[in-house]
Amino acid sequence: MIRSLNIILIFTSVIMLAGVYTLKFSIEHTASERTALAAQIESQEGDLSLLKADWAVLNQPGHIDPIVKRHQVALAIGPVKQKQFGAFQDIPMRPVKPNNAEMDALFQSLEAGIDPIDAILELEGIE
Amino acid sequence: MAVTAEDLSPTIALDGGRKIRGNLTQARIRWMVLALVLGFGAVGGRLVQLGMVVPDTTIEGQARDLITATRPPILDRNGLEMAVDIRVPSLYAEPRRIIDVEEAVTKIRSVLPNLDEAWLRNRLTGDKGFVWVQRELSPAIQERIMRLGIPGVEFLTESKRFYPGMTEASHILGSTNIDNQGIAGIEKHMDDENVALLQELGLARGNALAPVELSVDMRVQHVMHEQLVDAMSRYQAIAAAGVMVDVHTGEIIALASVPDFNPNDPKTALVKDTFNRITAGIFEPGSIFKTVTMAGALDSGAVSMTDQFDARFGVRFGRFTIDDFHGKHRILALPEVYKFSSNIGTIRVMQAMGKENFRAFLSKMGFDQRVPFELPEMRLPNVPKDFSEVGAATASFGHGLSVSPLHMVMAYSAFVNGGNYIAPTLYKRSQAEAEALYRRVIQPQTSANIRALMRLNAIGQGGSGSQMNKEALGYRVGGKTGTAEKVVDGRYSSSKVTNFFGSAFPMENPQYAMVIMVDEPKAENPQSGTTAGWNAGTVTGRIVQRVAPMLGIAPDFSPIIDDFVPTAYR
């Protein structure tokens, strides 16, 4: 009776032992994976911070201005002048469309030999 | 002989062998139990002891967290980064884990030959748990040291402050020390105010710090800095400085002072003459102070815009006679006094107001104390408590008292915004927030008069601001020149001058006020002069010409726009 119980207990404990060790190793593995990931995140954050700093440098007016000046001649650009500004109200209205029918009539009468200016001159008394 | 019981020796009692062995076993068991109890007790005690140990996480006296702590990024008003954190590796050693000090020293010096051998050996010897070897290295050097594989030598990633604008906004930003603590400028102010508190609460240790938004516009800042550097060489000046402020909110749009330093290399800040002249420099303001006298006198009601003042003869005080620089020597109307920058006329204006009232007005404008401002680099202005007759006379045209250019720009801003004094700030501030802080110093009508005077000085015949107006035509700038003679060997020198130009634009509805200073300028060419109109004035004009479009101000050439300027004195 006691003997079989002992055997059962020994087997149980061996199994438990194996189980505990498996668990331990798997946890250690997970932990090391986590550490590796954390380190990777850390290093990538570091890289990111450098890239962000680079980006900030490239965006500075103080960085762009010399580049613009260098290519000023080639690109034909320059600082904006006062006279280059305008407003919508400064743009003149679209000119009235020419009256085509009247023009046609004028040309036809000219071709026919009648110049309307003669009538006006006659009216004014100029010869 | 009788046998008595007394004579009997005690009865011999013999135990059986089994019993003896039983007792022996029991004693052994007791000893074993005792030994076990002691053994487990020792183990338990040690466990408790280990549990009580507080691990030393400090790094040479500083909490590890504090060193890896980040600072919030600083952005300008349009969201452009002015200061960011970068992660850099720092080399440290654990001397108690180093096996062969000599080998470690040789190997480290093969990568970092700049380290002193004796210093390094001394550093790595001993039983310490942490010593810095070299901080803030490049990733390439980190890689090379890692490859050496020295036990007990490791890396820690630190946060380092980086200023992408380099020198451009140096006096605004200030700088940080190697432990990432602010030591100057807005960085120091942030530490004093919030970051230190946040770090104490353990909030600033992550990397998700909300960025700090400043009121500065980096585009304007760049133009101002560039123009000041240009002015330094163009006029061979010893220094130049400028500040621009939003007159309605008190937000500083740009602030620069050259020579300056590179905040990425904090030791350059220690070079002589790199101090912030706008906040930490006090100067005799010269004629730009006449605007203050005019505002005070007009607001008191003692003088009006049409009053005439006798400027035919100098004003005598005992042995001294104060005369005009560009003397007209005739009777001048008040706008002409301002336009021709007549010292005599200004003294008469001040005398009409009374010197006590004049002194009280200076206090009202905050010329007695530091301007309430975020930057720690501030200096007390030097304004006499009481004015003598001569003192008041010289003060009316800006001599005999010293104030910072920041004082002047804030006064100008109050004069043109309708008469409300607003303390400057480097943080963003909305119109509504600003209005809660307004302090009325002059009446709106006086403010309108000052605007007319300032614009008159730019467009009027012979006005000292005409040089400036030529550069910034169409942007309706108005302003006042100031050429303050420096005291050399106890007397005023006419060759060494500090030049100022106080201005505002667009004058019909001012948005921005600006003060430009050029220290000890020389004439640009033989045709030009050394008075403020030639240098500080033209610098102002060039800056406005560049920045007005950025600030959303379009040029306007219609003559009606200057109708508020009295035509009689143009």
The amount of beta strand of chain A, in percent, is under 5%
Multimeric organization: heterodimer
Sheet having the most strands of chain B: 5 strands, mixed
Main β sheet profile of chain A: none
Low-confidence stretches of chain A: none
Q: What overall geometry of chain A do the principal axes of the alpha carbons give?
A: rod-shaped
* Helix percent band of chain A: over 70%
Mean pLDDT of chain A: 88
Query: What's the tally of helices of chain A?
Result: 5
Number of strands of chain B: 18
Largest interface: chains, residues each: A-B, 22 and 31 residues
Question: Got a strand count of chain A?
Answer: 0
Helix and strand run of chain A? HHHHH
Descriptive report:
The complex is a heterodimer of chains A (127) and B (570). Chain A contains five helices and no strands. Chain A is rod-shaped and about 150 Å long. With 127 residues, chain A is mostly helical. The model of chain A has no long low-confidence stretch (mean pLDDT 88). Chain A has helices at 2-59, 61-70, 72-75, 100-111, 116-124. Chain B is of the alpha+beta class and 570 residues long. In chain B, 37% of the residues lie in helices and 18% in strands. In chain B, strands 3, 4, 5, 6 and 7 form a five-stranded mixed sheet that branches. The longest helix of chain B is centred in the first third of the chain and has 36 residues, at 17-52. Chain B is elongated, with a radius of gyration of 38 Å. At the A-B interface, helix 1 and helix 2 of A face strand 4, helix 8 and helix 18 of B.
